[in-house]
Amino acid sequence: MSFIWLARGYQWGFEFLEEGSQNDDSWNPLTVYEDAFEPFIQQDEFCRRVSPERVALRMKDPEGRKDQAGRFIYHDFVLLADLAEKVDSVEDGVEIIWPLVADRYAEVWDG
Length: 111
Fold this sequence. Notes:
alpha+beta
């Protein structure tokens, strides 16, 4: 996949669900994520173009899920390459990215 995806679930904390696919041994998804999100870590939802080939996207769970403490679930993505070219807003993320991950997240969110 050409994205990095972090989220938390009903009973589990924030973790990588997708680490991007790169053929480079020096690839570090945590560093890429931190570089993209650090200036905006406190914002609820946003879409920020980091470079021509990277977009940082945070969106509230489109299904309205909350964790066991009642907090909304947010999904953080760093979109790479072709996906980055297609997304310019949170709404684009919901329309384009969410269908790519919705079924997988439904399977793991309460586990």
